[in-house]
Amino acid sequence: MVPDAGIPDPKGQPAQHQQRQPGRESEMQPKPVVIHDDYQGSGRLTGKVAMITGGDSGIGRAVAVHFAREGADIAIGYLEEDRDAEETRRMVEAEGRRCIAFKGDLGYEERCREFVAKTLEAFGRIDIVVNNAAEQHARESIAEISADQLERTFRTNIFAHFYLTKAALPHLKSGASVICTTSITAYRGNPQLIDYSATKGAIVTFVRSLAASLADKGIRVNGVAPGPIWTPLIPATFPEEKVAKFGTGEPLGRAGQPADVAPSYVFLASRDANYITGQVLHPNGGEPVGG
Fold this sequence. Notes:
Blueprint: E1 49-53, H1 58-69, E2 73-78, H2 82-94, E3 99-103, H3 109-123, E4 128-131, H4 147-168, E5 177-181, H5 185-188, H6 194-214, E6 220-224, H7 233-237, H8 240-244, H9 258-269, E7 280-281
Parallel strand pairs: 1-2, 1-4, 2-3, 4-5, 5-6, 6-7
Helix pairs in contact: 1-2, 1-9, 3-4, 4-6
């Protein structure tokens, strides 16, 4: 069983910064809460196979472990964080399920095709696609966002959603579920994350449009828009002083944990949500949003 670190200190977390993206969960203090000890699986995903991008850490890791506790086998995609990916695989296997890890840049279509092929080779089917991997780079002004950064952010955050869903679609049957991670920034914006926020807005529209497109096939498409969640992306993006206060201004008074978000994905992937498509859930600590 994965340990539960409890509710985080409302005063924030220790000041820290990681020099490279993607961030490493193994270097974070305190470690994010992956799954709460009292979370009881009930077989809601028994026999299912889920593909999860960014599954090595943060929200992706938490989704993988929750899905495994609900009975699913897991294929995680990640960029280069081998140590984190191996830990996620260990956690999934500790839940009694199988897990494979695919290393590669899923912002490119060919790599998404390869990820799908590896998943089918390992498990023979795909039932759930979780488009979750993302990157962000804080800049004080749009003038500081280079063409390279703009393309890179869009490639990781939205191109990969298109490419992986397209590659998986021929193998998805009626009852399958596609879940995309958007963000509260899609609804309220962020002056330091203009390009990131734009990609997250694009994901919302992608969810709504794809849901309409696939409804007649019985494939549901939904999204999750987390608020401030304690993941490796935070210390890899912001300076130490901002990390220390991250999430403390929210209505609930703290940053969220991946364990607070992952049950939304379980719900959307399960039969409990079989009449829900084209929608976005908002585990964000109480921030009001529209749409």
